Amino acid sequence: MNKKRNPFPGVGNKPTVDRHGKKRWRLRKTVKGRRIDVYLPGPYGSAEFRAAYDAAINPTLEKRTAGSVGSFDHVITTYRANKRFLALASSTRYAKGKRLDWIRDMIGKAQLSDLQPYHIENLMDRKGGPDAANRLQKELSELFDFAHKKMGIQSRNPASAVDRRKTRDGGFHTWTESEVAQYREAHATGTKARIAFELMLATGAARQDACAMGRHNIKGDTIYYRRGKTGQEAELPLRFMPGLVDELIKLPHDTALFLTHGDGKPYTPESFGNWFAEQCDAAGLPNRCRAHGLRKRGATELANNGANEFQIMAFLAHKSTREAIRYVRAAERKRLAEAGMAMLHRENLSNLTEWLGKTAAQDTERK
Description:
- By secondary structure, this protein is mainly alpha-helical.
- It folds into 3 domains: about 15-55, no CATH class; about 70-160, DNA polymerase, domain 1; about 175-335, Intergrase catalytic core (hpI Integrase, Chain A, Orthogonal Bundle), CATH 1.10.443.10.
- The protein has 15 helices and 6 strands.
- It has helices spanning about 45-55, 70-80, 85, 90-105, 115-125, 130-150, 175-185, 190-205, 205-210, 240-250, 270-280, 290-305, 310-315, 325-345, 350-355, and strands spanning about 15, 25-30, 35-40, 220, 220-225, 235.
- Helix 2 (about 70-80) runs antiparallel to helix 4, helix 12 packs antiparallel against helix 13 and helix 13 runs antiparallel to helix 14 (about 325-345).
- The N and C termini lie far apart (about 95 Å).
């Protein structure tokens, strides 16, 4: 039997326990003559853990200059070194950094004072979809706000004069019961595609959290993880996840991470999202069926069965009830509408089919 490949070379298979009794994962490795000896934050395989590992193995230096004072190059460089940016979760910082790099590539040499609303409109057109365009408008607005408050750059904010693009109602599509059944029919039990599906559906985990989960997340009869985006913990009982448990017991006992590439390497959130989209396409599902919709499916089911916003917040690993209360309100509207209709229509319509089949002569208006 071939020995399973270590997804994180240089990290041992057991954590180090410090003098306070805390378990810590240590990376010790030499790369091109450079000695690396650091402790990695977060649970093994988590988004925070992987981001720190990648940063230690492949350090990236800021190759760009700060640019001329008042330019987007200058403001973005200063913003990325600010505590406001560095305090973000590693996964959020990575995604936001990519968007800021795009802005810098497009208009880095331009002065903030030169930007006009029609420039922003053109940039939003180049981003493609309405969600990406609105996100760009928000990023630009934040840069102008930062430049004014933290750098003393006096410039109006042209992003405030630009209308947001219309987006689909409710954001990401929530999977329907028939779509869930169609995916399960297409991907047999025991396959990686099925494990990924049951994992996200049962736990409500986002992409970055699902692809970092493994044996280390199972504690007794619960599955535990810390959400990469918010740092909030979620501890969920496995006894309410029969579909997931059926898949997990089929995995080899030496499985570290539940979901990896064919060579044993862990997924990034982006590569995992692309791979899962391919599995949805292979099942013949419409393009609207994606990973985040499974997270919404779980929250919607909880709300429809009477869960309150605090219970949904705990399931989604949110820090507040702001997002969770949307699911509760949607479920309440449905229940209230049904209750209201029942009060309005009290007559017995058991013979509805017979009644609809009758025709009556229309009265014609006489002049």
